[in-house]
C-alpha cells in the first residue's frame, strides 16, 4: 500500500535528496578542512624554514658555512616525524630526527623557488614537505641553498578523522531534522488532497451535496471535475428515469386494450385464446408495473434521509383501515431517533410492500421491529403464517414469482423492494422465522444521526 502512496513517494524522494546533499556536504567540508589544515601546516613549515635558514652563516672566511645552533627537541628525536635538510652547495646538513636518511637530490632550481612536496620519510611514512631555493653569498657566484622542512602527514590525517568524528553526529542530527521537516512539509502540502478525500467520503455518506470550491487553487480543477461529473450523472439518471416512466406509461394503455380484447374474445366463445392473451398481458403488466416502480426510486440516496418510525406508523395506520389489517394484532418496536440513508418515499414503498405481504399471509399477528448497529439499521417485518419452503426463498425476489397462485398479487412486490434496497446501498434478507416469514430490510445508517433513545414507539 505504501508503494502507491504519494506521501511516501515524496517522503522517500525528499529523504534520498537530503541524504545525498548531506553526503556531498561531508565530502565538501572534508575537502575544505583538508585544504585549511594543509595551509596551516605549510605556514608552520615556512616559519620553521626561516629558523633553519638561520643556521647558515653567509659571511664566513671560506664563503657561506653552517652555523652551530641550539638543538630543537622536535628535530633531535629520531624519527619524530619532523625533519629538515639543508643543501648548501655540495654540503648537506640534516636534522638528527632523520638519522641516516636523506631526501633525494634534485636539479638545482632558480633562487626564490618554493614548492610544496609529498615525500616519503625514513619509516616510509608520508610527509608534507616545503622546499625552498635561495642564493647565499655575494659576488657573481652565489651558493645555491636548498631547504627542505617536512612533517608527518599522519598528524593531518588524525586531525581529519577528529573533524569527521565531530561533524558526523551533527550532520546525522541535522539529517533527522531535515527529514522530519520535509515530512511535515509534505503533510501540510498534501492536506488539501486529504480534504478532497474527506469531502468525497462526505458525498458518499450524504453530508455534502457537492465538493465545493472553497479549496486551494491547485486542487480546484479536480474538485470542479468531480462536481461536474456528479451533475452530469444526476441529469443522466433523471433522463433515464423519465424515459423508463414514459415507456411504462406508454405501454399501460395498449395493455388495457389487450385485456379488453381478451374479454371480447371470451364473449365470442373462444376462452382458450382469451386466457392466453390475458396471461401474456398479465406478464407484460407486471413488467410495466415493476419498471414504473423502479423509475420512481430516487437516485440521490447520498443526500436522502428518512426516519423509519413515522414511515411505519403511516403504513400501519393505512392498513388498519382495511378489513385484513383490522383483524391483525400489530407488534411494533421501532426506536426513535433513527436516521436511514434513503428517500422517505422509497422507504414507504418498500415497507408498504413488505407489510402488505405479511398481512396477506399472517394468521393473526404481524411484527415490525428495528435493530440499529454502528453502520446498518435492520427493519424486520414478520408474520405468523405458514412461511415459505426453504427451496423457494431464493426465488421470492425474482420478478413474477408467486407462491400463492390464489391471491391477486402480481409477484413483483418483493422484487421491487429488493430493487429499492439495492439502489439505497442495502439489501433484502428473507428467512423463515419461528413462525412465518421474516423479511429484513437492511439499510445504511446516516453517520451523523443520534443514537436511538431508550423510549420506543409500540403499536
From TrEMBL:
The keyword Transmembrane appears for this protein: yes
Q: Which reaction does it catalyse?
A: ATP + protein L-histidine = ADP + protein N-phospho-L-histidine
In short, the EC number is: 2.7.13.3
Xref: PROSITE patterns: HIS_KIN (PS50109)
Per the UniProt record, one Pfam family is HATPase_c
User: Per UniProt, which keywords does this protein have?
Assistant: Kinase, Membrane, Phosphoprotein, Transferase, Transmembrane, Transmembrane helix
Q: Where are the transmembrane segments?
A: 12-33, 163-184
- Write down the InterPro entries for this protein, in alphabetical order: HATPase_C_sf, HATPase_dom, His_kinase_dom, HisK_dim/P_sf, Sig_transdc_His_kin-like_C, TCS_sensor_his_kinase
What Gene Ontology molecular-function terms does this entry list?
phosphorelay sensor kinase activity
| Entry keyword Phosphoprotein | yes
Query: Where is this protein found?
Result: Membrane
Q: A GO CC term? A: plasma membrane
Domain Histidine kinase stretches: 246-447
Gene3D superfamilies, per database record: Histidine kinase-like ATPase, C-terminal domain
What name appears for this protein in its UniProt entry?
histidine kinase
UniProt source species: Gemmobacter aquaticus
Amino acid at each position: 500500500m505504501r508503494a502507491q502512496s504519494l506521501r511516501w513517494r515524496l517522503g522517500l524522494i525528499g529523504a534520498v535528496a537530503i541524504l545525498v546533499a548531506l553526503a556531498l556536504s561531508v565530502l565538501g567540508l572534508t575537502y575544505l578542512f583538508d585544504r585549511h589544515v594543509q595551509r596551516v601546516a605549510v605556514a608552520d613549515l615556512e616559519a620553521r624554514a626561516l629558523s633553519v635558514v638561520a643556521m647558515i652563516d653567509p659571511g664566513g672566511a671560506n664563503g657561506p658555512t653552517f652555523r652551530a645552533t641550539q638543538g630543537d627537541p622536535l628535530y633531535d628525536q629520531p624519527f619524530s616525524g619532523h625533519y629538515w635538510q639543508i643543501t648548501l652547495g655540495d654540503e648537506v646538513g640534516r636534522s638528527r630526527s632523520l638519522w641516516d636518511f636523506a631526501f633525494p637530490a634534485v636539479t638545482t632550481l632558480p633562487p626564490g623557488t618554493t614548492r610544496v612536496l609529498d615525500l616519503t620519510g625514513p619509516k616510509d611514512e608520508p610527509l608534507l614537505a616545503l622546499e625552498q631555493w635561495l642564493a647565499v653569498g655575494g659576488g657573481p657566484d652565489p651558493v645555491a641553498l636548498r631547504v627542505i622542512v617536512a612533517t608527518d602527514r599522519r598528524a593531518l590525517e588524525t586531525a581529519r578523522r577528529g573533524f569527521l568524528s565531530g561533524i558526523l553526529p551533527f550532520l546525522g542530527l541535522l539529517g533527522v531534522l531535515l527529514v522530519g521537516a520535509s515530512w511535515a512539509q509534505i503533510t501540510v502540502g498534501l492536506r488539501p488532497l486529504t480534504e478532497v478525500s474527506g469531502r468525497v467520503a462526505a458525498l458518499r455518506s450524504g453530508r455534502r451535496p457537492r465538493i465545493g470550491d472553497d479549496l486551494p487553487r491547485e486542487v480546484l480543477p479536480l474538485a470542479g471535475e468531480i462536481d461536474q461529473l456528479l451533475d452530469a450523472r444526476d441529469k443522466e439518471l433523471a433522463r433515464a428515469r423519465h424515459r423508463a416512466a414514459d415507456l411504462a406509461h406508454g405501454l399501460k394503455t395498449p395493455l388495457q386494450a389487450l385485456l379488453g380484447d381478451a374479454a371480447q374474445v371470451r364473449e365470442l366463445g373462444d376462452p382458450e385464446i382469451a386466457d392466453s392473451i390475458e396471461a401474456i398481458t398479465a406478464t407484460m403488466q407486471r413488467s410495466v408495473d415493476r419498471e414504473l416502480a423502479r423509475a420512481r426510486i430516487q437516485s440521490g440516496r447520498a443526500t436522502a434521509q428518512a426516519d423509519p418510525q413515522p414511515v411505519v406508523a403511516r403504513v400501519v395506520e393505512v392498513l388498519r383501515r382495511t378489513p385484513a389489517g383490522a383483524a391483525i394484532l400489530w407488534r411494533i418496536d421501532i426506536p426513535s431517533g433513527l436516521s436511514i440513508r434513503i428517500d422517505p418515499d422509497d422507504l414507504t414503498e418498500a415497507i408498504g410492500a413488505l407489510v402488505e405481504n405479511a398481512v396477506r399471509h399472517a394468521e393473526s399477528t404481524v411484527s415490525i421491529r428495528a435493530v440499529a448497529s454502528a453502520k446498518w439499521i435492520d427493519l424486520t417485518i414478520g408474520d405468523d403464517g405458514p412461511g415459505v419452503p426453504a427451496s423457494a426463498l431464493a426465488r421470492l425476489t425474482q420478478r413474477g414469482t408467486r407462491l400463492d397462485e390464489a391471491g391477486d398479487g402480481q409477484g413483483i412486490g418483493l422484487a421491487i423492494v429488493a430493487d429499492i434496497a439495492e439502489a439505497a446501498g442495502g439489501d433484502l434478507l428473507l428467512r423463515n422465522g419461528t413462525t412465518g416469514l421474516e423479511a429484513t430490510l437492511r439499510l445504511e445508517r446516516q453517520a451523523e444521526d443520534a443514537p436511538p433513545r431508550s423510549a420506543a414507539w409500540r403499536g
